[in-house]
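Now for one record.
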Amino acid sequence: MQFLFFLLLTASSTFHYGLALTFRAADISSLAVVEQQGMHYTDNGQTKPFEDIITSHGANAARVRVWTAGQYDLSYALALGKRVKAAGMTLVVDLHFSDTWADPGHQAIPSGWPTTLSGLNTEIYTYTQNVVQSFANQGTPIDILQVCVRPFLALG
């Protein structure tokens, strides 16, 4: 039985001798969803954008999940990416390679994607390249690319 494994991790940070790379981060993937439901955030009694509040309290990175379709699709993530970068934070993009939530115990191949190993390899490469290029094209390059994937395809 063969399994498809795919891992991409890129970082734009430089490591120096004896210095630790420290992130104080939040996953803000649902931020726009709850804001659309009327949620707003305050700090010291003043209504402010959430990303401004967390950066003023020490956050320096934010994670945004990306699904291949559905609520957390690429256009949704691109809008959040603009907010993250405007707040001066490191942008962490988490690719789920799924039309919905994915985690180590649950991940379905996106609808419309091929189910052969060679087809999936090509689709994953093309999709990932498109996501990375889309963020770069809008002036919000991804700092860290995280992949949420498990071997979702068993070929026999």
